[in-house]
Write a structure and sequence with these properties.
Pfam families: zf-C2H2_2, zf-C2H2_jaz. It is found in: Cytoplasm. One of its GO terms (cellular component) is cytoplasm. It is built from 19 helices and 7 strands. It is mainly α. Strand 5 and strand 6 form a beta hairpin. Among the domains are: 69 residues, no CATH class; 167 residues, no CATH class; 32 residues, no CATH class. A 3-stranded antiparallel β-sheet has the order 5-6-7, with no helix packed on it. Helix 4 packs across helix 8, helix 8 packs antiparallel against helix 9 and helix 18 crosses helix 19.
Amino acid sequence: MASDSANLYTCLACQVAFHSAELQRTHYRSDWHRYNLKRKMAELPPVTADNFAQRVLAQQAKQTEEATKGGFSARCNLCQKAYSSQNAYNSHLSSKKHKDAQAKATAKSSDSVSEEVAGADQKVHDFPLGDNDQAMATDEPNNTARAQAVAQEREINRALDNAQTEEEVYELLEKKMQMARRLSLEECLFCDTHSATFEDNMAHMAQAHSLFIPDVEYVADLRGLITYLGEKITVANVCLYCNGRGRTMRSLDAVRNHMLDKGHCMIAYDNEDDILELSDYYDFSTTYPGDKMEGEPHATAAMNTEEPETRLTLAEARAEGIVFDADAAELVLPSGQRLGHRDLKRYYKQRFRVEDTRESVVINRLLTQYAEDGAFASAAHKQANDRALIMNQPRGRWALRQQHPSIMVKRRQLEYDAKVGAKANKLQKYFRHQILF
């Protein structure tokens, strides 16, 4: 018995024992052990494995219930508004604005009824009046599908947290991308608003969320750009402004809430990496410098006789006189112009002032430098500067007058000390007798 107890491997946090070290290491990686460690830090007693399993099942049931509630989606076709909660939708149906819109729609449909049209009553009956029962019956399939999608997305996120190998992570990410919701061009990127057209959606995002498209005059594919931004939000769950540099988010609602709360309803366009990411949707070819600059007398004639654009190989380009400078990252055109690489733009943007090499300018610069540096100044120059500094003071003239008597007193004192020192042979103040060593 003593030998068996000596070979046991124990866990003090969970108060259990194991017969092998492998079982103990497996136990240390379990959620039960982590949970008991947190309870131990909070000075609480540990829970058993059965009790922990019951708590896990209760928490999963609670999360499923919350996902079902959070998956609610309703839309008022009359007011063109979408709601993600039952309370907000019911409040809208009972609001005065909705009732006024419903009354106007009813009056408009009644005025359009004609006795000559036999099916007018049926058309009026089919017109959406925003009835609560009818809207709920229409949105029930959408609510169920969205609730299932939210629940599956949470399961995938939970599986990603517990994934052990890289293959499992890639498989779960691919599954999440396939299940992710895609926004249409009429849906807002930052809220649940659904506009009638793409132009109305862009106007809504600009007015309600202050969305600004950088360099919009050079955008070649605006619809593709908005589609790509929507996929970043829905599929990758990435903030458009943080662009992966902030905290990780797991759902579309989390990304939208983050952008609205932080004021990040904007596109990241500051770093070079952000600009290159969106370069497929821009066309800056109109800003590229050509061989012929504006203002030259033969520029117009050259444009009229311009041949179609052709692509040259490296050998053909060298034959045409185009020189590639690999070391300097420059391209020399036959006209003599040099095209630099974008990596060196910080150096090309520098504008240095041309130094004046005339002798008079150089001499004046040296004189100024010598005057500012005391090491190059003469004694007379220093004295003149000191006198000028004293004169610039509020009572400078009085100070100069008071300075003259003090100088005379010091001079008399020095003369007297020299006379006494000569008589007593004590001119060297630092001298001492070389005795008692």
